[in-house]
Design a protein that fits this description.
heterodimer, A: about 500 residues, mainly alpha, two-stranded antiparallel ribbon, 20 helices, 2 strands, globular, B: about 230 residues, 9 helices, transmembrane helix (chain B), membrane (chain B), transmembrane (chain B)
Chain lengths: ~500, ~230
């Protein structure tokens, strides 16, 4: 498992241009966010212009990885070793973050113009910048201190973003999220204290060499796991998730559900693969909880009347799919082929869900903005007036349900293959039930939207491009299924 | 028994006094319903923490605690109370929320279970703790503070009191971290980052509390739906 995360020395030194690409990828989102706070963009084109160098930095890092393989950076500051690595997985995550981040940023000016958000809206830009910069740092960092600092900054900025709508319900939900996230971070810190006290080092490659299974590793893994599960909204610690999204702005919800919760999951898997290699019970507990998450999240989404709750609850269920894979990734006695398949399926599912969920939040936001309603009944009869938004919802839902030829399908195919090979029948049952439940809540939404008799008086016209951005993201999730060899090659290259 | 008394005798008087001061002020801060007094005791606590880091041989942390804890986090609480930059909405005086007994019992039980796990974790590595709790009363104080802060965090509904409880829990955890890992450069860096995070979180929380007061009045500060999540 450890080599898959690229926790070893690279063969080549990074070139000077690669250094600059790294600085740009980590710093530019923050810088541009600050700039946008001074001069808030009213149109999408300045945002588009500003996102060119960000995307270019990602592509430069991709080509650097293509040419030189895994790269490492290391600094020694006052006796503390900080290090970054660039392997196939982190390049993939970085590109995903940049594309979704740019899409959310492009969506924002139109959204803010139409929804009359009040004086707090200019704060959205720097907070978004902090979230994107720290996310990029999390995909690259390989020492516990950088991971901790980046995770906390990202969490605080995410809380800030979610509460910008300044409604009382958003504030109450946000305050609860803030307090839980802060206590979660202290739990993580206690786990780190055990690691630091026992092994005396913070760099993950070094830890991977010295950690041996034992009570210290177990307790550290439990503490770190509890803290991160709380932040990643893993069942049963997910209850803060839906209220927080209920009254948040659309681009914020899209960023949060697509990327922010995934960062904690990424760190969790990375640290557990060091602390608990070949553990039997811990990954299985996560998998059982994941099965419950699939069913519970699906039921919540099926029963709800609110459009945003539906989309947010479906995140809980989709995270469940990822939790179910844990025994295949971390457990003992898994055949190498099953493990490789599970590894591919895990990340493809994560990426596919990120694109589809961002698209779905934007489409739902478009519907809500245009109709002024936030319930399923409120969007009744929209099929005639807003076919494009519904199309986006449909395309995104295809990925979530795992129908071919989407990324969700390819990912689930890989996962099913791995599960059949290692005879995890429960996990297979959970995957199938999850797909059925997803179909149930998606078609419930569509049934409402095709009501012809619903009277509707006034539709707010959307800004140009708002539907198009959502459609692009949904199609990207689709295309990832057809062109899965691109991300899979990057994932395989992690240690070659 | 004799060994225990010898261990007590080996305690440094200043350290004992400081540990008692820390624990006492933490308890008042956590369990006093009079919010203004609780916040004053928080400031006192932060000052005592500064001294404690100094005694534990971490001058940089003492500086960080002085700047971040005393200088920046403390005023956040007074802002949340409405004593700094008074605005249209009223200032906070007392916590008047009460809880049904069964919920209190459940929350305390959950907090105890959580703390039991943490305690067991620390017990397993006690062999290689940098500072033994038997020699350093400050670490014992850290354990007591973390335990009672966790209890208070689970127990209270008032948002300001939960924010206070989080800050004290943080201080207790930092103290434990220093106890387990020593005051090496890495541990100091972790604690400094933790202090910055606590300050930013408190600032955000204080802004939120003022805004909520402005929108909905005092009642909103106790509106915490689900006991399931709040006990974690």
């Amino acid at each position: 498992m450890i080599w898959r995360f690229g926790l070893f020395d690279g063969t080549f030194e990074p070139l000077a241009s690669t250094h600059w690409a790294l600085v740009a990828a980590l710093g530019l989102p923050l810088l541009l966010g600050m700039l946008a706070a001074r001069l808030p963009p009213r149109q999408a084109w300045p945002v588009l212009l500003a996102s060119v160098p960000v995307l270019a930095s990602g592509l430069m890092l991709l080509s650097a990885y293509d040419q030189a393989g895994p790269l490492r950076w290391q600094w020694d500051i006052a006796g503390i070793q900080l290090s970054l690595r660039l392997n196939g997985l982190s390049v993939l995550m970085l590109l995903m973050t940049q594309v979704i981040g740019v899409a959310a940023a492009l969506y924002t000016p139109g959204y803010l113009r139409l929804s009359e958000p009040g004086p707090l809206s200019r704060w959205l830009w720097p907070l978004m910048g902090v979230v994107l910069s720290t996310l990029s740092l999390i995909w690259l960092a390989t020492d516990l201190l950088t991971l901790y600092a980046a995770l906390e900054l990202m969490g605080l900025a995410a809380v800030g973003m979610l509460m910008l709508s300044a409604k009382a319900s958003a504030l109450v939900a946000g305050m609860r999220y803030l307090l839980l996230a802060l206590v979660g971070s202290l739990t993580y810190l206690l786990g780190v204290a055990l690691i630091l006290g026992h092994w005396g080092r913070l760099d993950l490659p070094g830890l991977a060499e010295v950690v041996e299974p034992g009570p210290v590793a177990w307790f550290a893994a439990a503490l770190i796991g509890a803290g991160l599960a709380l932040k990643a909204a893993l069942f049963p610690l997910h209850a803060w998730l839906t209220p927080v999204h209920e009254s948040a702005w659309t681009p914020v919800s899209a960023l949060h559900a697509a990327l922010v919760v995934k960062a904690s999951l990424f760190i969790l898997l990375q640290l557990w693969s060091i602390l608990l290699p070949d553990a039997f019970y811990a990954p299985r507990v996560i998998a059982w909880l994941g099965m419950l998450a699939i069913v519970w999240g699906g039921l919540l989404a099926w029963r709800t009347d609110s459009l945003k709750t539906l989309v947010a609850s479906s995140t809980v269920a989709q995270l469940g799919y990822l939790m179910v894979v844990f025994p295949l990734l971390l457990g003992p006695d898994v055949a190498p082929l099953s493990r490789a398949l599970a590894w591919d399926g895990f990340w493809l599912q994560l990426i596919g869900h990120a694109f589809a969920k961002a698209a779905m939040f934007m489409a739902a936001g478009n519907l809500m903005l245009a109709t002024g309603e936030s319930t399923l009944k409120g969007v009744a009869g929209t099929s005639r007036r807003m076919p494009l938004s519904l199309l986006v919802l449909g395309v995104a839902a295809v990925t979530l349900m795992g129908l071919p030829p989407s990324a969700g399908f390819t990912a689930k195919w890989l996962l099913l293959d791995a599960m059949v090979r290692s005879q995890q029948w429960w996990a297979i049952a959970a995957l199938l039930i999850g797909s059925l439940l997803t179909a149930a809540y998606v078609f419930r939404l569509f049934r409402y939207s095709f009501y012809e008799s619903a009277p509707h008086h006034h539709y707010q016209p959307l800004a140009p491009g708002m539907d198009l951005i959502a459609l692009t993201l949904a199609l990207a999730a689709f295309a990832l299924g057809l062109l899965a060899h691109f991300p899979l090659t990057l994932l395989h290259g992690g240690g070659a | 028994m004799i060994a225990f008394f010898e261990a007590i005798a080996a305690f440094d008087v200043i350290e004992v006094l400081l540990a008692l001061g820390l624990t006492g002020s933490a308890l008042v801060c956590l369990f006093d319903r009079h919010l203004v007094r609780a916040c004053y005791f928080f400031v006192f606590f932060a000052a005592a923490m500064t001294l404690a880091w100094w005694l534990l041989g971490a001058p940089w942390l003492a500086a960080a605690e002085l700047g971040l804890g005393l200088g920046l986090t403390g005023p956040c609480f007074f802002y949340a109370l409405g004593h700094v930059l008074p605005s249209a909405s009223s200032s906070l005086e007392r916590d008047t929320f009460s809880e049904p007994g069964s919920r209190v019992a459940m929350r305390v039980l959950l907090a105890l279970a959580w703390f039991g796990m943490v305690g067991a974790a620390i017990r397993t590595v006690i062999a290689d703790m940098a500072y033994s709790p038997l020699e350093h009363p400050l670490l014992l104080a850290g354990v007591v503070i973390a335990a009672s802060a966790l209890g208070a965090f689970a127990l209270h509904r008032h948002l300001l009191r939960r924010l206070l409880a989080f800050n004290l829990l943080g201080s207790g955890v930092f103290m434990l971290l220093a106890g387990v890992a020593g005051t090496s450069a890495a541990a100091q860096a972790f604690i400094s980052v933790g202090l910055v995070v606590a300050w930013l979180g408190t600032m955000l929380g204080a802004l939120l509390i003022r805004r909520l007061l402005h929108l909905e009045g005092v009642e909103a500060l106790g509106r915490d739906g689900n006991p399931k999540e709040s006990a974690i």
